[in-house]
Write a structure and sequence with these properties.
By secondary structure, the chain is an alpha+beta fold. It is built from three helices and 13 strands.
């Protein structure tokens, strides 16, 4: 609270980013709907960006798909600000004037979920018997009965360069698996070697050999025609003759009657 300035500024309400969320807008008094890209949403309003900028003071009915579960959320609000120029041109915001209990619950749950996801997990140090230095990990959950922690291993990032000091060959980390040998966990690292020019040529030759047929193809001998040009029959054009078809139909009927 800033008492020296003579005013109190309320804390800003949390806003949930709406990356790649499409919003359907129905302006009041218009039958046509248009679309906007979501920017963020909070308990009291929604910010978005569109090629069609509504007027400040106009009413909008909005619908978006909940990023959490895909359920539709409908809101009615009044446009309270809009940027007609500048770096944020096309952006505008509405303040909710009507929300059903169901939709309000969905928005509040979305805000709480986003808040938990962005909150930094507390750290804990674990000292394992037989290990010289403690392990620093993030607490995922903790109860009176136990503790669950998580530790990032950035040095095992997929694609990281690896040197086999025994052979001197270099490669990249392609896959990581964890398997248990009785009570002992083991990391299984899959490494793809970098191929030099000779190795690439050898690998290419093997792949080419795999595509060859088992038996050599038969050789077909073509005898020259002594220079005589080949003649082609002129295309035959078939036209539909309705009178001929009718005469043939009558003749066939006469024969069947006989």
């Amino acid at each position: 609270m800033n008492t020296s300035a003579g005013y109190y500024q309320a804390p800003r309400q949390p806003r949930v980013p709406l990356d790649e969320v499409l919003i359907k807008l129905h302006p009041e008094g218009f039958h046509q709907e248009f679309e906007a890209d979501g920017i963020n949403v909070g308990a009291g309003g929604l910010s978005m960006r569109a090629s069609v900028l509504p007027e400040v003071g106009s009413m909008l009915r909005c619908q978006l798909d909940n990023p959490a579960d895909g359920a539709a959320i409908e809101m009615i609000g009044r446009v309270v600000w809009a940027h007609e120029s500048g770096p944020h041109v096309g952006e505008f915001g509405i303040r909710f004037t009507h929300l059903s209990d169901r939709d309000q619950t969905h928005i509040e749950a979305l805000i709480q979920r986003w808040g938990r996801a962005t909150t930094q997990a507390p750290l804990v140090q674990l000292q394992l018997d037989g290990v010289g230095s403690p392990i620093v990990a993030e607490v995922q959950s903790e109860t009176e009965d136990g503790l669950c922690v998580e530790q990032a291993l950035p040095f095992l990032a997929i694609g990281r360069s690896v040197l086999n000091e025994s052979s001197g060959r270099r490669g990249h980390l392609e896959a990581i698996e964890l398997k248990m040998d009785e009570s002992t966990p083991k990391l299984v690292l899959s490494i793809g070697y970098e191929l030099d020019g000779a190795s690439q040529a050898l690998a290419g030759g093997d792949s080419d050999r795999d595509t060859l047929p088992d038996e050599a193809p038969l050789k077909i001998q073509v005898r020259e025609s002594g220079g005589e040009g080949r003649t082609h029959d002129a295309p035959r054009i078939v036209r539909y003759d309705r009178e001929a078809e009718a005469a043939a139909t009558v003749s066939l009927r006469d024969r069947l009657g006989a």
